[in-house]
Amino acid sequence: MADTRTIQRRIWAGLYTGVKRFTWGHFLVAAIILASLILLAIQTEPELSPIIRSRLNFIDALIPVFFAAEFSLRFWAAGADRRFAGLAGRRRFTFRWVTVFDFLAFAPEIIMLVLFPELWAGARWVRLFRLFRLLKLFAMFPAFREIGMAVRDAGRQLGATLAMATLLLFSAAVMLYVAEADAQPEAFGSVPRALWWAVATLTTVGYGDVYPITVMGKVMAGFVAILGVGLVALPAGILASSFAERLRRRK
Amino acid sequence: MADTRTIQRRIWAGLYTGVKRFTWGHFLVAAIILASLILLAIQTEPELSPIIRSRLNFIDALIPVFFAAEFSLRFWAAGADRRFAGLAGRRRFTFRWVTVFDFLAFAPEIIMLVLFPELWAGARWVRLFRLFRLLKLFAMFPAFREIGMAVRDAGRQLGATLAMATLLLFSAAVMLYVAEADAQPEAFGSVPRALWWAVATLTTVGYGDVYPITVMGKVMAGFVAILGVGLVALPAGILASSFAERLRRRK
Amino acid sequence: MADTRTIQRRIWAGLYTGVKRFTWGHFLVAAIILASLILLAIQTEPELSPIIRSRLNFIDALIPVFFAAEFSLRFWAAGADRRFAGLAGRRRFTFRWVTVFDFLAFAPEIIMLVLFPELWAGARWVRLFRLFRLLKLFAMFPAFREIGMAVRDAGRQLGATLAMATLLLFSAAVMLYVAEADAQPEAFGSVPRALWWAVATLTTVGYGDVYPITVMGKVMAGFVAILGVGLVALPAGILASSFAERLRRRK
Amino acid sequence: MADTRTIQRRIWAGLYTGVKRFTWGHFLVAAIILASLILLAIQTEPELSPIIRSRLNFIDALIPVFFAAEFSLRFWAAGADRRFAGLAGRRRFTFRWVTVFDFLAFAPEIIMLVLFPELWAGARWVRLFRLFRLLKLFAMFPAFREIGMAVRDAGRQLGATLAMATLLLFSAAVMLYVAEADAQPEAFGSVPRALWWAVATLTTVGYGDVYPITVMGKVMAGFVAILGVGLVALPAGILASSFAERLRRRK
Description:
4 copies of one chain form a homotetramer.
Chain A: H1 2-16, H2 24-43, H3 50-77, H4 86-94, H5 97-104, H6 107-115, H7 117-122, H8 132-140, H9 142-153, H10 155-180, H11 185-188, H12 191-202, H13 215-250
Helix pairs in contact in A: 1-3, 2-3, 2-8, 3-6, 5-8, 9-13, 10-12, 10-13
């Protein structure tokens, strides 16, 4: 049994020592995640030949299997860490965010693959599950966690400005609905429809598929745009300041 | 009479202790405001069946009644607070922003409902009054007041940059009017018309319904865009810095 | 002569004590500037009746006369100020920015009005001179000068980022010209033409009149947009930080 | 030989004393770089007469020759500087960034000019090499290096937010592909195609050539836009804060 302990300890040290130091295990997993995302993008190309497609599908089915194996290995190897040894340690390990994200990176897809194989190959929305792999990536790199901490530092202000931005979006939609519903029933005929305009305008994307055409609508839209653009840009500014504060304190 | 005083005190403590601590009263009122806004959005959908519409109209008419009742209850219960007891206290309570916003959340609609019921159901712009309910929401949550305080901290700089942005918008409109009026009389034939272009450009929304087509117009527009985009984004940046400063001082 | 000195002193005190304290003179001049700008906007409306137009033209011609009178009055009254008394003081007063801006607010228009009255009424670009009145406004309010000072504080960084943004605009135009010239000769057939695309994209205005359609052009445009948008937004961010720094130091 | 040493020393002092002090040599080189870029832009104009074009081509071929001469001169004169004297000093000089950028400003073009003269005149992508001259410009002015240092200060945070923005772009593309592939196979029929939409939206450029049309697509796009716009704007904010920090420390 001593041999097994040694292997366990070596695997834990070599692959998962923690988020502070990078190991070749981290890089392998990160590389596979990125490769799987590129694979996901390529698979959606409609002009792929059937042979290539079936091969890509095969590789694609292997990836959740790899993540499941990696998850099991890590779960087993975690016993070598004093923090996660014993039953209580195991429980603590199970309910870490890292573990949950790791689990989501393969579990929904394996369940789909086993129970609904025809959905796996056919349904498009199944691919959305693969985005859970990004969470695994985020949990792995400490630089990403710094984003999370900057968000938490300014949490209250971010929440307030996001809520205010949402209410502003709504108000803008109501205003433009009132001004433009008669002139453009298709685009502004109801508040939910006008919301699409409000989002496109206040985020300054401005596709140009909908825009006010009446004088009153243009005046309202101009007013809302000048005041509102700032408000919608505010969360980014607050977050940037929160980052800057962390940077300053570290120095 | 002792009983009434106790009820009064309990209502005040349970519902309106102030903005520092949340009570279930706050959450009930906030939920009803948000529900009423969702209701407002749904009501504008033109494809609603007449039965559903009449029911929604009925609920919609109840909301200002609820706010009126809530307002009266709060007004009465405020007597339990030492600050608002007595005639002078009542007067102080009446002219608080919170009270004014609470009043605007139901009064214009009740007046409309009683005096012009046919307008209430028919006229679209009447719905704009319902946006006053948002003020009630803003007055209720301290996080929103923090936005107000950050605005006040940087008030002078915000004012100067907003004024400068307005003057820049105007200058840009005059310049493009001069350059493009002959080529595009519909879009740039007068300064007020060119203002629509200026707003869409300097807020970087850029719908694409109007844009310069002459070489001189493009050169001017490019010049204005590079310098002006920053100026119009400045208020948001200043506001974000003001938030950051508040955050730092609190720590 | 004592009487004249008293009048001179009173006018200087009442109208022009300086930029630190507002007088009714400041507000009158500011109101006339704003009114003249609104007048400028209205005059460009092509649907005005000839009678109204001729009346507006008359008022419009009075405004530079008013500014000339105000300029002369101020020049004369400045003698009451010790700093501007005597010949050397006069010279110092003449070459202040405020004086230069005041002069530009009426001189070009009076010269036009006297020498080329037919151009004054007809030529559109003559209206551009009226924007000089804005400089007068800027020189009058200290809040605007604070913008100037914030610009000066971060001058070197602003210069470097603006230069870098300009070079990036140029590089983006060259790249898209290389990628798209064959596919879209009208929009990307030369570097100057592609510059219009680069300005519209990197300022994030994105009218949608020109955009890449080839795969190579889209890849390059995407790459340039992600990296470049930040750079073009940088001057605004730096300026906002410079404002924030001034705000902090004043507290 | 003493004469040669003196010339060497004078050239080094007059042209290249370093990046801290400007010499007329710096300005000459900067002017030629800027002139060469303007030349590059003019040459791409398709309406040039053949005579002018051939003359511009001649000037254009001279520029890399000038840079090669300047490079050799500098290389030789560097011996006058104690840091770059001797064999080890030469080696140190050779592998400075400034030297590498200087080399790239002429070498690829001279090689093209000598080995593939028909490509030099004809192929459009050859012009991309001329953008290397910008690197020479960046290496020359210390204000540009300050941008580089601000980037390095916030390097880790910039990296994390850029990576996060890239992953968000990808996720947005997958989401919109799932929602819109059936409705708009041309624009959203695969993830790489949807990426073009994601870049245009999250950088807030919003050309309007592609946008969601289904309800589900619009809801997803709105959600992504509100949250994502901030994230993509974050690197600029972080960079601006990093600049501000440098500014503050210098004061």
